[in-house]
Amino acid sequence: MFLEGGAGRLRVSDGGSGGTPVVFHHGLGADWSCWQAQLDHLRPARRAVAFDARGHGESDRAPTYSIDALADDLDRVVAQLGISRFVLVGHSFAGTVLSAYAGKHPEKIAALVYVDAVGDASGVAADVKEYFRKQDAGVTPQRVQELYAQMLGPKARPETRQRILASAARLDLPAFAQLHGQIGDFHATEALARYGGPRFAIDAEGEDNPLLAAHLPGVKRRTIAGVSHWLMLDDPQAFNEALDGVLGR
User: Fold this and answer.
1) Among residues 18, 99, 148, 233, which is most buried (max CB within 10 A)?
2) What is the pTM of this model?
3) What pLDDT was estimated at residue 133?
4) What is 2-248's CATH number?
């Protein structure tokens, strides 16, 4: 189905019933279908929702992109679906959206689950932030493909690589430039101070980047071995087992 976001239509996948709903938010350059294995796994027992963020997948492109706007789009989706409280799961860049949303609507979040996700990069040096902003401003389709090929790395399955490069090719380029450039200016720790509920991280084993959400205050971490950054695609069974463990808590 399509629902109205703050700047056009958003493609939404909704199904299942029972339990506390789980809402999935993909990362920058992906789309809702990266969560297909998780939706299929959860829907026999509970409601599970995923959607394409503005400028991604089948959702409409927007005149502007920001972390706050994505968090507001998320709120419009759950409101139109009649979901008042839910578990929020987000991958990669979506870590910023999770933290922003929890800070805006702490009463609606039953738990946060960060998946190899961005934490708080606000402490990065100002010259480094400016470098990436300038680099992102002139990004081209070819450069996006190169960047995602590098991020996929040697552990990504061929199917994962094909899917992610295809979804990145559909990304509205201004979305990449504007959203990627905001990561260093977002104060996730400050936003999370307004949310007192449980928070978890499911990460690729061996990833120790200090900017990961796993290093945010109060986050309990699980890891999965032998996977790329897109761990839910590389080993959906292991990821689903880790997610079940989190939901069981």
Assistant:
1) 99
2) 0.96
3) 72
4) 3.40.50.1820
